[in-house]
Amino acid sequence: MKRILYTILAFATLLSVTACNDWLDVSPETEKKKEEMLSKESGYKNVLTGAYIRLKSTSLYGEQLSYGIVEMLAQHWNNTSSGSLANYLKKYDYRASAVESAFSSLYGNLYKVIADVNGLLEEIDANKEVFSDNNYELIKGEALALRAFCHFDVLRLYGPMPTNLPSDAILPYVTKVSIVPNSKVTYQEFTKQLLADLSEAESLMKDRDPICFNSIAKLNGTASSDDTFWNYRQLRMNYYAVCALKARVHLWVGDKDEALKYANLIIDAKDDTGKAMYRLGNSDDCASGDLTLSCEHIFNINVQDLAATSIGKGRGDIYQKTQSTLRKNYYSTGTTDIRYTLMWENVYDSYWWTYNNYFQKYMQSNGMPSLAQNTIPLIRLYEMYLIAMECSDLTTANSLYETMCVARDIPSVEIADAAQLQNLLVLEYNREFYGEGQAFYTYKRLGIEKIIDSNEPGSAATYVVPLPKAENI
Predict the structure, then answer these.
(1) Which of 8, 241, 286, 300 has the least CB density, counted as fewest CB within 10 Å?
(2) Burial level of 106, CB count in 10 A (0-12/13-18/19+)?
């Protein structure tokens, strides 16, 4: 029998989680029933917070779907240990038991987050009267957007290549908490429901989200209102994050007009003072220790123990590349690109007589800006520029790229045709989002046959991660 892990048991587990401060605070001896917990506004806030806690776990975006397994798929890390997960994924060996187990866990954990917000969404419309101010619209909007966010990454991993779509059902789009297995739907129905969730979230949050009438500095520094639950909006699926996700999804489904519209909405967004809501990061940000360029973050997560990890220390056998590989595949000798000069540390290995580059983007250092500490970006402004480039005419694409090159301290190049543009986009998604988990999806979306630093051809066998065995019974 199918065993997708998004049953009511997931919601019951959420209700029994213990934590502190503004996280869930439910004592073990008083496990609350769903109906009781969701009879108050505070209950909805706790459930939504619980979904974010699960989202940022190492089993999801706190590692595996940012700098972990999805980066192994992009061939971004060393793969030296025989029998390791990274080594199997160098060959895209999805039959290895370690690989099957890892992707089965990812699949289940994404649907657990979906179960968390579905439990909330099933009750919220019947309890509108318990909400103050715009909290009904904001909580429902965030929940819908989180449901879409997780479903989209299920699609990007386990779904078909957009260049090779099947006519049969592919994956379940889950909107109810149930012990009954959910049926798979077609690609067209899946993406239709996904975009419907995002459109509803956008409508609910527009002109209500505090980010629509405050600067990031205000939201991150002082209370935007009497309800401090809505501060630090970059840590939440805020209004602009919804719009940025719509740009990402529309690009995936091939609707370039809509993708461009939403990408430009983010690029042109202004705060309450008339200044740009987001700006491209530069070498000055890096010099302060802000290597993830938090001024670009539209949606991010805070991982409190990041400093204790090997990637947070800027070390680790896996989080490195040889200097020769980086220069051959991504950067030329003598490059001034801040993504190479400031985000990699070059170290001589006397044993192997070679230089290795250790990845520094998530290195936690003394004196770094507080908002950059322990932060992993999930959606950034630079991606909106890349989407706008891909969806615009060549003149506009060249103008956008010139702006991007200034921020990254590299000379601009003249893009002459569509083929050159695509090659540049693939290279940029790799250089820019190293350690952030976006490059593999770009290869898959565009159907790229040559994966950088891989001997395996890009194809459906490479890009479509098999569903867990239990889902095919």
Answers:
(1) 8
(2) buried
pTM: 0.92
Question: d(Cα 332, Cα 467) in Å, to the nearest integer?
Answer: 39
Mean pLDDT, the chain, rounded, equals 90
CA distance 265 to 260: 8
- List of domains in the chain: 1-208 (1.25.40.390), 214-436 (1.25.40.390)
Q: Helix and strand tally (H, E) in the chain? A: 19, 5
Predicted local confidence at residue 355, as pLDDT: 83
Give DSSP secondary structure letters for 320-381: EEEHHHHHHHT--TT---HHHHTTEEEEEETTTTEEEEEE-TT---TT--GGGTTEEEEEEH
DSSP code, position 185: B
State phi, psi for 18 to the nearest 5 degrees.
-115, 145
Q: How many CB atoms lie within 10 A of CB 446?
A: 17
User: What residues of the chain score a pLDDT lower than 50?
Assistant: 1-31, 223-224
* Helix, strand, coil percent values for the chain (each to nearest 5): 50, 5, 40
User: Which residue from 125, 393, 434 is spatially nearest to 293, judged by alpha carbons?
Assistant: 434
